[in-house]
Amino acid sequence: MEDLIFRHMQTVRELTLKCLDDTPEEITGIVPAGYRNNIHWNFGHILFIQERLALEVAGEEMELPEKYRSYFSAGTKPSDWAGAPPTLVEIREALDTQTDRLQKLRAGRLDEPLPEPFTNRMGLTFRMAGETLLFSFYHEALHLETIRQMRKRIRADE
Question: What are the residue boundaries of the DinB-like domain, all occurrences included (predicted)?
Fold first, then answer.
């Protein structure tokens, strides 16, 4: 079952990378009407949240630089950014390598209990490391769809 979970993680990430590669960089900084974030933020948020759910919530240190938290954690938005965020090239590289890295770090450990139950912003409580990793796939897909909707909105507004 673990192999299936990690294959699914890779499939979801391949879809995200394809979307990033298919998105013109010149539109990634636009915050469309009705949204509080831009496409750039969404890609960085996908990266940061999967790292957080796979490692930090399980009591382990994240390997992303700390600056990712200030730019891409839940509740942040580009209008509050101080300084330049990680570039899309940096984010893409990190997204591309994250799945293999997390698979190596979490292999054989998905059934470990979390140091303490984790309740996310949606009110869902997780108790096992594998639960938070599985939820990160759903989270990534939600933001991937948001990015697709933002691209449509930006094209319609042009």
Answer: 10-147
| CA–CA gap between residue 60 and residue 76 (Å, rounded) | 23
Please report, for the domain that includes residue 60, its CATH number: 1.20.120.450
pLDDT tens for 25-35 read 999 999 999 99
* Tokens (6 digits) for 86: 């990680």
What is d(CA 129, CA 63) in angstroms, rounded to the nearest whole number?
17
Number of domains in the chain: 1
Asked if 146 and 42 count as a contact pair (C-beta separation under 8 A), the reply is yes
Half-sphere exposure at residue 25, Cβ-oriented, CA atoms within 13 angstroms: 5
Distance set, CA 140 to CA 9, 11, 100, 107 (Å): 10, 11, 16, 20
